[in-house]
Design a protein that fits this description.
Radius of gyration: 56 Å
Number of domains: 4
Oligomer: single chain
Strand content: 25-35%
Largest sheet: 3 strands, antiparallel
Distance between the termini: 141 Å
Length: 604
């Protein structure tokens, strides 16, 4: 009945003298002013002498509407507290057991400890203070609370909080003895790494001046303490298990290892792979790798080279006649280890450069082991391998590089064909010879000798093409002074001496017809019923002519001379001479400054 409600409201307001409750006076207290009322009180908010009743009305919100109701004791207490600054503490006027704290301009509930100590507010969280109870000091700390009415409150401090209560805020990292428990040590450090300093438990070693507190900033640092006449070393480490209050310390001092002690005396930033003996532990060796020192071995020092690359056989080290290689074996924690290289490595490494096409062992020569002379090796495809019994028996191996080459094997000539030595028994047989300049030459075995079957054509100082025409070199090979001729033969071949030319002539039946049998079948000018030869033995002697001392050229298609190593006089050497006008072949003296053809003989 709205009309009736209005009359009742009017009566209430008129009789009790109550103002309208609206948003304008929400939270306001009102004392009933009608002295005939049981709830009469003279003052709205302050409780002064003369008030006959402590009942107050308060304007309260109910959704979007407002209405008067009886105020609670807390609401009446707060209203009576009056003005005060933040941090003030007062007891309730109605219920004196209630404690109130002023924070952010408003009163809120507090605790009895706020009244005994001081206000615990958000601004002084973490602050510690004490109260003496029956002659014993009890420590409390201002902390967050789960009570919405009391968001921050004093609670009893832990042992660590009590111990550190009077430490204040040090300038930097320090260690101190506990206030309450003098057996406890505390360390002040940046626990967050972002300036979040706090106290935590430490150990007695943190108190030593020569060590200082073990914190994250000192992690892995090694320092010493002198005890009597003994120097003891410690390292600030995170691997030290120290349990305090059921929590592990993040780091603590522990006795240093040998390497940690020695590193304090070792160079700070040496070159990679530096090797040093321990300054404090001379029986220890260390290697600098990846910007830090690690354990090494005595061999690192003896070899003068650190083992830092796993399985590295490309850079061996030599000591006392033996090669060592750096392996991926581990001698102890993080230590790579030099080991004696394998027999084949030690036996062949120094000759590895000769295991190639034009190397000493590319021609099938057997290598005798450098360290173990009982071992024998073969160079094949650029690498040495152990020789088998058959290869050792032959004394030379038929390898790919000398395919179709002829060598004297077990006292007789044999030809290398498909990795096997093939015997032959004709008057002669042809093969090939490869030179380092890329030329290949035909060869021929005649009697007990193996000869080049083409004239030498390697370019050297002291060599010439006939009449300076390169086309003549393609046909006849080059002409060499004797000095150049003595240096031009390929490896395994040499310039023949006069006796070896005589043996060649004898092998084809003697000097009377040696020219006819050894001369080529073309390019010789025919005169007096002679000229070209039959080339019966595939020796193919061409009429290459000669370059004279004065630089002129003569006798092409008429004569040829092949140098020997045998001297005729101070300024001349013997040479095998063939002419177009004769079928014989003979040795004659030629001046060493003339330039003539070269035929090399295999050096067996």
């Amino acid at each position: 009945a709205p009309a009736f409600e209005q009359h009742v409201t009017n009566f209430w307001m008129q009789e009790l003298g109550v103002d309208t409750c609206s948003s304008d006076n929400e939270g306001a207290l009102f004392a009933v002013k009608n002295s005939h009322s049981t709830y009469y009180a003279a003052n709205d908010s302050a409780y002064t002498d003369g008030d006959s009743n402590l009942v107050r009305l308060i304007c309260a919100a109910y959704g979007n509407s407002f209405a008067w109701r009886f105020a609670t004791d807390i609401e009446k207490d707060v209203a009576a507290l009056g003005a005060a600054g933040d941090g003030a503490v007062k007891r309730g006027s109605i219920d004196t057991t209630n404690v109130y704290v002023k924070e952010n301009g408003a009163w809120r509930r507090g605790t009895e400890l706020d009244a005994r100590i001081k206000a615990c507010v958000f601004a002084n969280r973490g602050e510690t203070d004490s109260v003496i109870v029956k002659h014993d000091t009890t420590w409390y700390i201002c902390d967050d609370s789960d009570d919405a009415l009391v968001p921050t409150a004093w609670r009893k401090a832990t042992t660590a909080e009590a111990d550190t209560a009077l430490f204040g805020t040090p300038d930097g990292e320090v260690a101190k003895i506990g206030n309450v428990n003098e057996s406890h040590v505390y360390v002040y450090e940046d626990t967050s790494g972002k300036g979040g300093y706090a106290w935590r438990r430490g150990t007695n070693l943190d108190m030593l001046d020569s060590l200082g507190p073990c914190t994250k900033n000192n992690l892995n640092k090694t320092r010493s303490v002198t005890v009597g006449k003994t120097q003891v070393w410690y390292t600030c480490a995170s691997d030290q298990v120290v349990l305090m209050n059921n929590k592990l310390l993040p780091c603590a001092w522990r006795e240093a290892t040998d390497i940690e002690k020695d590193v304090t005396k070792l160079p700070k930033n040496p070159d990679e792979a530096t090797v040093r003996r321990g300054p404090l532990n001379p029986n220890m060796y260390y290697v600098y790798q990846d910007k830090g020192w690690r354990y090494g071995t005595a061999l690192d020092s003896l070899l003068g080279k650190a083992c830092i690359t796993d399985g590295d056989y490309s850079t061996p080290a030599k000591y006392d006649g033996l090669y060592y290689v750096c392996t991926n074996q581990v001698a102890s924690d993080t230590v790579r280890k030099w080991v004696v290289a394998s027999d084949i490595f030690n036996d062949t490494w120094e000759m590895q450069g000769e295991c190639k096409e034009f190397g000493e062992y590319g021609y099938g020569n057997i290598l005798i082991g450098r360290v173990n002379t009982q071992n024998k090796y073969v160079c094949e495809d650029g690498l040495f391998r152990p020789a088998n019994s058959g290869e050792i028996d032959f004394g030379r191996v038929c390898v790919g590089y000398i395919e179709n080459s002829i060598y004297k094997v077990k006292g007789s000539f044999k030809k290398c064909v498909n990795s096997e030595w093939k015997s032959f028994d004709p008057q002669y047989v042809t093969g090939v010879l490869k030179d380092t300049d890329g030329h290949s030459y035909k060869t021929v075995a005649i009697g007990n000798q193996l000869w080049m079957a083409e004239n030498m054509n390697r370019v050297t100082d002291g060599s010439y093409c006939y009449e300076e025409n390169a086309a003549n070199c393609d046909i006849y090979g080059r002409l060499y002074t004797h000095g150049a001729a003595s240096q031009v033969c390929p490896k395994g071949w040499r310039l023949p001496d006069q006796t070896e030319f005589s043996t060649l002539v004898s092998s084809v039946g003697g000097s009377d017809y040696a020219g006819y049998l050894l001369k080529s079948t073309t390019r010789w000018v025919e005169e007096r019923m002679s000229g070209n030869g039959s080339d019966r033995y595939s020796f193919r002697a061409l009429p290459a002519g000669q370059r004279k001392n004065d630089g002129s050229y003569a006798k092409v298609n008429y004569d040829t001379w092949f140098w020997s190593t045998t001297t005729s006089s101070a300024l001349s050497y013997y040479a095998l001479h063939f002419m177009n006008i004769a079928d014989d072949g003979y040795v004659s003296a030629v001046g060493d400054e003339t330039a003539n053809s070269v035929r090399c003989i295999q050096d067996n």
